[in-house]
Amino acid sequence: MQDLEHNTAAFLRTIARNPAIKHEVMHSPAIYELLFSAAKRFVTGEKRTDLLVRAHELADLGYRLSAEYIGENTQDAEACREAKDELLQLAQACGTIKRPIGISFDLSHVGLLLNRKLALSHAFELADEAMRQGHGLMISMEEAAKTGAILEVYEQLANERRNVGITLQVHQHRTIEDVTRLLRLPGKIRLVKGAFQESPEVALGRSKELNERYLILAEQCVTAGHEVSFATHDSLLIDELERRGYLRERHAELELLYGVRPELAKQKREEGVAVRLYLTYGKEWFLYLCHRLAEYPPQVHQAVADMLEPERLQAPGY
Ligand SMILES: Cc1cc2nc3c(=O)[nH]c(=O)nc-3n(C[C@H](O)[C@H](O)[C@H](O)COP(=O)(O)OP(=O)(O)OC[C@H]3O[C@@H](n4cnc5c(N)ncnc54)[C@H](O)[C@@H]3O)c2cc1C
């Protein structure tokens, strides 16, 4: 069974990156609709208003929120500007929600692949709008090949804007050094294991060693009194973070992706832990869906059931 799950995960990660398959999904209405009914477990919908409806409901229950307009690797300047404008409107619309929101995005969605200055100026605009609305801006981390460029842009931003945070992938070896430097900046650090397949020279695979490294970096953030988000669904890690008291630190929170382990989010919230949920919307959900299924292959069964019976998704369990 373990081999079967491993192969399923490898297959999903491969098709996630295949442009011909993605094109087929996006341009065949029947396939799009079918797969989208599975994606809806993890993505609030195609439109900003879909995210906002869910965000209001979850904020009323007491959750903190992150909000992302899905997209990455945008190749032309006009599309980068459009993505930035959509994110600006998202930040404005989130102004009505009375819980701290982190507007989350990929720098490659707003220009990183074209020119770093463009990505930086778009990110400044986003940080300023988020600030006006009383919210934060959170930069996601992408494939290891982009880490240097992402951190360079982040460091310039974070030197001037206090409301900008950065996601760090614990699996990348370089993160051990990066975190020491980044802790000197005010921005929140979100610790994730890392979603992308990387070579052993660059990153650790899922392992006990990876979890140990996660806890070492978590300890560094907590000891520094730094704002930190523990973004993981791994019960072994969450239990250990809880045992050490890290989840109860004033500057710390547990962050889960919308649709993944809602019962755990509810339980932790009811126990008094600050829980943040990561909400997404948009049409570029194919890669996002593949990653979620690859991370926990039993969810493939759930995805098939969701395709057959979309009404299953009406009560997500928060
Ligand atoms: C808020 C947030 C933001 C993120 N941002 C980024 C980013 O910017 N860049 C990036 O590369 N990655 C990002 N990720 C993804 C992250 O890197 C991991 O790929 C993802 O969280 C899966 O790793 P994990 O730590 O949850 O545990 P995993 O190693 O995937 O799982 C460990 C164990 O947890 C349990 N488990 C996991 N899922 C389930 C489930 N659905 N039901 C029951 N048990 C389950 C299983 O026992 C599993 O063996 C983000 C994740 C979160 C939560």
From TrEMBL:
Choose any GO biological process term that the UniProt entry carries and state it.
Answer: L-proline catabolic process to L-glutamate
Q: Do you know which InterPro entries this protein is assigned to?
A: FAD-linked_oxidoreductase-like (IPR029041), PRODH_bac_arc (IPR008219), Proline_DH_dom (IPR002872)
> Which part of the chain is the Proline dehydrogenase domain?
54-295
- Which GO terms fall under molecular function for this chain's record? nucleotide binding; proline dehydrogenase activity
| Cofactor: how bound | Binds 1 FAD per subunit.
- Which of UniProt's keywords are assigned here? FAD, Flavoprotein, Nucleotide-binding, Oxidoreductase
**Keyword Cell membrane found:** no
Its required cofactor(s), as named, are: FAD
Query: Binding of FAD: at which residues?
Result: 141, 169, 193-195, 232-233
Q: What is this protein called?
A: Proline dehydrogenase
